[in-house]
């Protein structure tokens, strides 16, 4: 994989800006929370970005702070905010937007737009990613490490089953038919390879969206105040998922998010539905020819929810830190860096301009699966997000798992989830 070194001379980063404030107080420190649990390649890339920005902007010192998982980073950021020690900026889930607004923790990005260039930059991102970044006429987050859901499929298994290895299922009918042909049993009658596998732990609501979106229904309104769990189209989508297991072409019960790629590598599942964030993992570990395809359609042509993280600027950070953080966010999301970040991390580059850079054009030509996530953005929708997001998401995920476990019918599970979500969201209506 191509990598571009962003590290510059440490001496250059120490240059002091020629203003009396900078001379008197030193560099403006910009605490930057980033969701990584342990050190590794990604932390080195982020450290490189920070060093390069600091070298290019004397008088500013961006300080990456690796704060754990997304959830741990959110908790730490909000705790620091309440203690009056808010970070200047943080990458948090796009779905955390309403939570951060409700906590009065972040400030609108619009407050920092001063020039036509600033306003053009804000309009440069893919609309699908901005859907989870804007509400109430304001922009609260800037897309950075964003993703969609795709299908990975074993081309060798397709050939063996008499399927075209260069043509993934385009709709639910084709997906179910292919899953039946791809399912294999051993001599004892036990399933050795499932035709399709969709994980249902961790992000069950997100995977349900890969079925509700093609069925032409949204799970929540744009304001995050109402949900549509009991809509007949939502019930139908969940029923399709449940039926795959009932027909024996999908594992029964709840399927683990974390082990799904491994099941694909071990040929226990011929098709898996999961994040584009697994692309590098699949590329490095699949010992067979594989394909990557958009989500299968139904009522409409495909459609994946977006996912991943945004930059947010914290309201209680000193103004000079906020201004410096805004400059850093602009700098790191510039097309050349967004392109290299996509290559280095596997996330989707967040602007069309990034895909026009020589680096990403070359990478896309050499490895076309890297472009699948981008190509389905025109039919993508915002990832499910509401006020009281964690509580409402848990209600939905628990209902999905109840249906998959067979303790409730899809209709009953969604009816109960609707009632519970309505109760939680009543205060916001």
What is the CATH level 1 assignment of the largest domain?
Alpha Beta
Rg over C-alpha atoms, rounded to the nearest angstrom: 23 Å
- Shape descriptor reads globular
Poorly predicted spans: 1-24
Question: What's the total number of strands?
Answer: 11
Annotated CATH architecture of the largest domain: 3-Layer(aba) Sandwich
What's the domain count? 2
SS class: alpha+beta
Mind explaining what this structure looks like?
This protein folds into two domains: 10-140 and 307-379, 3-Layer(aba) Sandwich (D-Maltodextrin-Binding Protein, domain 2); 151-304 and 384-428, Periplasmic binding protein-like II (D-Maltodextrin-Binding Protein, domain 2). The longest helix is centred in the last third of the chain and has 17 residues, at 389-405. By secondary structure, it is α+β, with helices and mostly antiparallel strands. The relative contact order is 0.17. The chain contains 20 helices and eleven strands. Strand 4 (134-135) and strand 5 form a beta hairpin. It has helices at residues 10-13, 20-25, 41-56, 70-82, 97-102, 116-122, 127-130, 155-160, 172-182, 204-212, 232-246, 260-265, 279-285, 319-332, 335-345, 352-355, 358-366, 372-375, 389-405, 410-425, and strands at residues 28-34, 60-66, 89-93, 134-135, 138-139, 142-154, 184-185, 191-193, 271-275, 290-293, 306-313. It is globular, with a radius of gyration of 23 Å. The strands form three sheets. Strands 1, 2, 3, 6, 9, 10 and 11 form a seven-stranded mixed β-sheet that branches.
């Amino acid at each position: 994989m191509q990598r571009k070194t962003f590290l510059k001379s440490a001496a250059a980063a120490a240059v002091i800006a020629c203003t009396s404030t900078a001379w008197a107080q030193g560099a403006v420190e910009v605490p930057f929370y980033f969701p990584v649990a342990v050190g590794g390649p990604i932390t080195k890339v982020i450290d490189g970005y920070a060093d390069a920005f600091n070298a290019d902007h004397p008088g500013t010192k961006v300080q990456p702070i690796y704060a754990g998982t997304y959830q741990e980073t959110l908790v730490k950021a909000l705790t620091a905010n309440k203690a009056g020690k808010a970070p200047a900026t943080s990458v948090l889930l796009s779905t955390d937007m309403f939570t951060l607004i409700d906590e009065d923790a972040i400030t609108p990005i619009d407050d920092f737009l001063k020039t036509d260039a600033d306003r053009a930059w804000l309009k440069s991102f893919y609309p699908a990613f901005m859907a989870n970044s804007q509400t109430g006429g304001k922009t609260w987050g800037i897309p950075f490490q964003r993703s969609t859901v795709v299908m990975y499929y074993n081309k060798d298994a397709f050939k063996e089953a008499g399927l075209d290895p260069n043509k993934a299922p385009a709709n639910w009918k084709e997906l179910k038919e292919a899953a039946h042909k791809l399912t294999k049993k051993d001599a004892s009658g036990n399933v050795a390879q499932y035709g399709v596998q969709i994980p249902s732990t961790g992000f069950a609501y997100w995977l349900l969206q890969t079925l509700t979106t093609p069925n032409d229904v949204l799970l929540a309104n744009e304001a995050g105040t109402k949900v549509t769990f009991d809509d007949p189209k939502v019930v139908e989508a969940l029923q399709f998922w449940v039926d795959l297991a009932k027909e024996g072409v999908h594992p029964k019960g709840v399927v683990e998010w974390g082990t799904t790629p491994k099941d694909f590598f071990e040929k226990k599942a011929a098709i898996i539905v999961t994040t584009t964030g697994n692309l590098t993992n699949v590329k490095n570990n699949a010992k067979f020819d594989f394909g990557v395809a958009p989500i299968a359609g139904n009522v409409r042509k495909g459609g994946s929810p977006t996912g991943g993280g945004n930059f947010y600027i914290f309201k209680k950070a000193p103004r000079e830190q906020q201004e410096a953080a805004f400059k850093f966010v602009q700098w790191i999301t510039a097309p050349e860096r967004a392109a290299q970040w996509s290559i280095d991390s596997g996330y989707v580059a967040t602007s069309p301009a990034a895909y026009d850079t020589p680096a990403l054009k070359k990478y896309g030509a050499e490895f076309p699966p890297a472009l699948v996530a981008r190509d389905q953005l025109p039919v993508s929708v915002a990832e499910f997000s509401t006020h009281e997001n964690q509580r409402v998401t848990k209600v939905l995920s628990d209902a999905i798992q109840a249906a998959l476990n067979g303790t409730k019918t899809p209709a009953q599970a969604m009816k109960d989830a609707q009632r519970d979500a309505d109760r939680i969201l009543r205060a916001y209506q």
